[in-house]
Amino acid sequence: MPLTKDQRRSACLAALADPSRRAILELLSRQRLHVEELAAHLPISRPAVSKHLRTLKQAGLLSEEHEGRRAYYGVDARPLADLERWLGTQRRVWETSLARLKRLVEGDD
Known about the structure:
It is built from 5 helices and 3 strands. It is α+β, with helices and mostly antiparallel strands. The chain is elongated. The model has no long low-confidence stretch (mean pLDDT 94).
């Protein structure tokens, strides 16, 4: 069963909450890499890198291409763009609410 938009956002936020996964995304934003190359750049084991890649892939944050027996990973920015739009909407809602509260407290209404 496909995830709802809210579930996809939650998965994306959960994936981004881990510093190792953010480091992986930063590396992959520069170039496609396979798991061994990623492990060489990170202070975590190859199995840990694989586990983090699985989480990032489930969140829709990775693209994967196979060349022979190797899988090369890259960043799929679409979930990040959706998250950015959603966060922007939330920010505007809160800014409006806080401005209204400020006017009320200061007696400008």
